[in-house]
Amino acid sequence: MDIEFLTRLTDHAAIAISNAQLYGEVQRANVAKSDFVSFVAHELKNPMTSIKGYTELLAGGAVGQVNEMQANFLQTIKSNVERMSTLVSDLNDNSKIEAGRLRLEYKATNAADLVDEIIRTFTRQLEDKKQTLELVIPEKLSLMWADRTRVGQVLTNLVSNAHKYTPEGGMVQVGVAESQNQWDAEGAPRVIHLWVKDSGIGMTLEDQQKIFQKFFRSDDPKAREVPGTGLGLNITRSLVEMQGGKIWFESEYRHGTTFHFTIPVAEE
Ligand SMILES: Nc1ncnc2c1ncn2[C@@H]1O[C@H](COP(=O)(O)OP(=O)(O)OP(=O)(O)O)[C@@H](O)[C@H]1O
Ligand SMILES: [Mg+2]
Fold first, then answer.
1. 3-class DSSP state of 27
2. How far is the CA of 217 from the centre of ligand 1 (A)?
3. What is the pTM assigned to this prediction?
């Protein structure tokens, strides 16, 4: 065997070993980070629940009539606490995903019921922005094999984006369909296909390359009108892929965006 070949071989082996060590270190660091973030998230949850609870009591007039300006201020406190609470749980989910420690609980789940449940939580927000909601739900649908809460989280993130990045008076459509898996040859043969479509601000081709990156937010002034952290889609993609699905989108700048994802159908 020639010496050069042997040297190259040992070089490769050395690189492989140091990569593995590095990987081990990164994994250990991710686990430590995840433990720390979980601890902080847990500690922040109690005070946030308390702030939210007392704000709601005050706003509801539990300790005396509130005037319009006071009601406005209380609403601002409430929506900011809600933002904090979403941020904390998004950071927690993200570090769990990176450490490979997010556990999913699979069950045969009805997608139509889930869509219905999630949409309900948005009725008020959609009304406030005078956005029309269209639902496309077939009568008969196989159950999907999924973690119900996590698919709900995916839908919540996508509907929240559709609502945020669509101007007043726009349209949001949420749809479900069962179909052959035409999007992934290696995936489940049959899938539940869900989509969230909006008539909103759309994205430039440049932004479209980046939206799944952690903490990415567009510089588009229209997108910047609403608050956000840039974690939603990053987590959403991981959650879909962990459940054996795919996520993709089409977007046309200043016309609208449609996000699609699939979840495998549960075996009979
Ligand atoms: N439906 C949409 N229409 C137009 N732009 C969108 C849409 N959905 C996402 N985007 C763009 O992609 C970026 C990333 O979205 P993502 O949901 O990850 O973060 P975010 O909404 O800014 O914050 P959050 O972490 O609160 O979800 C957004 O900031 C926005 O620029
Ligand atoms: Mg978002």
1. helix
2. 6
3. 0.90
